[in-house]
Amino acid sequence: MPAFGDPDAWLAIVGLAPGKHGANRTGRPFTGDFAGELLYSTLLKFGLAEGEYRADPADGLRLKGAIILNAVKCLPPQNKTLPSEETNCRPFLMEAIAGLPHLTTFIALGKVAHDSLCRSFGVPLSRAKFAHGTEHRLPDGKRLIDSYHCSRYNQNTRRLDAAMFEAVFERALALIDG
To answer: Buried (b) or exposed (e) across 136-165, using 16+ Cβ within 10 A?
Structure first.
């Protein structure tokens, strides 16, 4: 699954892996699945996207200052990644990150994305525990902000609501302004 977004992005949103009914089917991250509704409405609200999201890669939606990457590049069985898949895909994630010269901030959507980023940057997980809204400094100075994944499950169980999700993006925007 290729990255989607602005090659001059300051913000990288890192998801788990392509969704079976979303990105794996449509070819664009978070497009055509429930999680994309919240993600793209939030990006539009905060000026990180322009156009209209219609759950179709031909909808003309563009990201501004942001890019979406996945910790794992392929659709995992039962939507659960294996440690070997995470390890095997980490070089692809780091290659994508290396190609983003203006990147300053990550938002990790879920613990798998958080752990993959920490491992990629050599940060022990014991020193960077995942928790929604928590911020971490990476060794190269970039910031990592954790968010629960915007999955249907997390939204339906009320682990994550729009206000909580938007607060993470508000914080990321405050970091570039402050």
So the answer is: bebeeebbbbbbbbbbeebbeeeebeeebb
